[in-house]
Design brief:
Layout: H1 8-33, H2 37-46, H3 48-57, H4 61-80, H5 87-108, H6 116-121, H7 129-158, H8 160-165, H9 170-211, H10 215-240, H11 244-269
Length: 270
């Protein structure tokens, strides 16, 4: 068991799991409380355009994806802040456009075309030191955001009208939340891929919501659960030689099903 930690790619996978867990715990809780799961999914899948752009321009993946993700999340924030009734259609259009753009850019990139599956389903064991540095910077932004705007975010999440009467700029805060979702997507996509990123952002936070009594506890429990899912998934993927991202999400999904099954049993016993 201890031999597994001598490999650099395993060490990087562990470090990236820790960094991703903080992002998922904090921003995932905001996604669940504000019912932004589909919106976060739209940002995640549209960000495939950023991956295609990075390869087409021959630039590092994470910095380009970060800029593209912030652009997409800002655009969605601008469009969806008032258009609440048609938000699902808008998200669907942005989702499809981003995916199509990424595929086209990768197709027309001269030379070697990368494995699309590694970006759709993750490649945590291929995380580099440079990726870790970018993830640290993005995590710092996310933590600073929640430390500075915690009370405002709390008001907006549970009573947006009351938050507005208290002088909180709800539009500005909405933009910030979506931008933080965009940053979280960039952090997590390197681990589990764009297809599975929304699961890691929502499953731990959903379970944490049912186990916590306050918003801050929800975020802390979500971080712990995400760490457990990531570490367990990495070990399973190593020993059974399966894709790490899929293993992580499978562990989280099993935990979700067990939790729900227990709740159903308790409901029948009452």
């Amino acid at each position: 068991m201890t031999n597994i930690f001598q490999y650099e790619f395993i060490q990087n996978a562990i470090y990236s799991s820790i960094l991703a867990s903080f992002a998922c715990g904090i921003i995932g809780s905001l996604i669940i409380v504000n019912r932004m799961t589909f919106l976060a999914g739209g940002i995640a899948h549209a960000n495939y355009g950023g991956i295609g752009l990075a390869f087409y321009l021959g630039l590092p993946l994470l910095p380009v994806s970060t800029i593209f993700s912030l652009f997409i999340s800002s655009l969605l924030a601008l469009i969806t802040f008032k258009e609440k009734e048609r938000v699902d259609a808008i998200i669907g259009v942005m989702w499809a456009m981003g995916m199509a753009l990424g595929i086209i850019l990768i197709d027309i990139t001269p030379g070697y075309n990368p494995d699309i599956m590694s970006f759709l389903f993750g490649s945590i064991l291929a995380v580099t030191h440079f990726d870790l540095y970018i993830m640290v910077i993005l995590d710092i932004f996310i933590i600073m955001f929640i430390l500075i705007y915690y009370r405002a975010v709390l008001l907006l999440s549970f009573d947006s009208e009351y938050a507005f009467t208290r002088g909180i700029s709800t539009r500005f805060l909405y933009f910030l939340i979506l931008n933080m979702i965009g940053l979280s997507v960039v952090i997590v996509m390197r681990m589990v891929g764009l297809i599975l990123v929304i699961a890691l952002l929502t499953i731990p936070s959903y379970l944490a919501e049912k186990l916590s009594t306050s918003f801050i506890n929800m975020m802390l429990i979500s971080i712990i659960l995400c760490l457990f899912f990531c570490f367990t998934g990495i070990f399973i993927s190593y020993f059974f030689d399966i894709t790490a991202g899929a293993a992580i999400i499978s562990v989280a999904s099993v935990a979700f099903l067990i939790f729900y099954f227990i709740r159903i049993l308790r409901a029948f016993q009452k």
